[in-house]
Amino acid sequence: MRLLSDYINNDFKPFSLAETVVDVQDFFADNSYSHFPLLDNGVYLGCISSVDSETFESEKSINDYRYSFEGFFVRDTMIWLDVLEVFARNNANVVPILEVNNKYIGFYEITDVIKFLNETPFLKETGGIIVVEKPTADYSMSQITQIVESNNGKLLGVFVSEANAEKVQVTIKITLGSVNEIIQTFRRYNYEIVSEHNEDNYLNSLKERSEYLDKYLNM
Fold first, then answer.
1. What is the strand order of the sheet 15-16 is part of?
2. N or C: which end of the chain has fewer CB within 10 A?
3. pLDDT tens, 179-204?
4. In sequence order, which residues have a C-beta less than 8 Å from that of residue 181 and are 6 or more positions away?
5. How far apart, in whole angstroms, are the C-alpha atoms of residue 25 and residue 50?
């Protein structure tokens, strides 16, 4: 599997303070980037937003708009989840990459990070998805893992997909196997099953039919 660092991009040079507003506007007109990094003598100053650049006066220098620069970036050592968070938090499809010493080394595009994500076992491998919910004060990642593994399931991934002050929703991907047994165990531990499952629905249907038959025989 490729490393996230394999997707570091240098197809375009960063902007500099010598750029004119027209240069920046023309760049964004030709490329569908939400932002793009700017350097001054090799020092990262921030990103220029394509939306902001549309409001700039074309005859001015980009240096006149230093106040609008957005300072977000990622490190080349960050894991993909943290990188993805920076994309989402800044509503960007490009993020600059800096080394530990703050040297600019390139940028990530969101499409490349999604490609990397698609190659992870969580998405690539065949498995079953279970979404469970429990009060925030009561849920435990270690307990979730223990429930899956005690039913001979193997975790491909688990993450908190929704959370608030009252409840936490956790998405779990497991190798295909004892999905129904895992679901029933979660219920015994007072987890609510948010996702729908064919096996689970089938058992519920059998239970309903059995109850109906009992009522019929007892008439």
1. 15-16, 35-40, 43-49
2. C
3. 888 999 999 999 999 887 654 444 44
4. 151
5. 7
Helices (H), ranges, the chain? 21-30, 50-53, 80-89, 110-118, 121-124, 141-150, 179-188, 198-217
For residues 39 and 107, the answer to whether their CB atoms sit within 8 Å is no
**Letter for the amino acid at 148?**
V
8 Å CB contact between 107 and 96? yes
Q: Is the dihedral of CA 73, 78, 83, 89 positive or negative?
A: negative
Report which DSSP code applies to 67. G
The yes-or-no verdict on residue 154 having pLDDT over 90 is no
pLDDT digit string (tens) for 25-52? 999 999 999 999 999 999 999 999 999 9
Distance CA(48)–CA(83), nearest Å, equals 19
User: pTM to 2 decimals?
Assistant: 0.67
